[in-house]
Amino acid sequence: MSEVWLTSLLTANPQEGFELAIKLARMGVKYTQPSAEVRDRLRPQYGSDANALIASSQVVAINFQTIAAANGYWRDVR
Fold first, then answer.
1. What 3-state DSSP class applies to 14?
2. Where are the domains of the chain?
3. pLDDT tens across 14-50, in order?
């Protein structure tokens, strides 16, 4: 994948930061498994697995922590 899609971790507010955290998680899966066909085939398995869903939530939470730190926890007025 050579497409540049992540140009900054800076976001206007926490909502945008959380959405970016989800995008980072999804892109991580896409980079790890580039075949859309394989991802589509696997989705029903992990979509109904509580442990897999919790793990996905943990990845998003870690990404959100990183983005929040990069944004000074949105304390700074832009």
1. helix
2. 14-72
3. 999 999 999 999 999 999 999 999 999 999 999 999 9
Specify whether the CB–CB gap between 10 and 71 falls below 8 A: yes
Find out whether 25 and 59 touch, Cβ atoms under 8 Å. yes
From residue 7, alpha-carbon distances to 4, 10, 11, 24, 29 in Å are: 7, 9, 11, 12, 19
End-to-end CA distance of the chain: 33
Of the candidates 2, 48, 5, 49, the residue with the CA atom closest to the CA atom of residue 26? 5
Is the pLDDT confidence value at 3 over 90? no
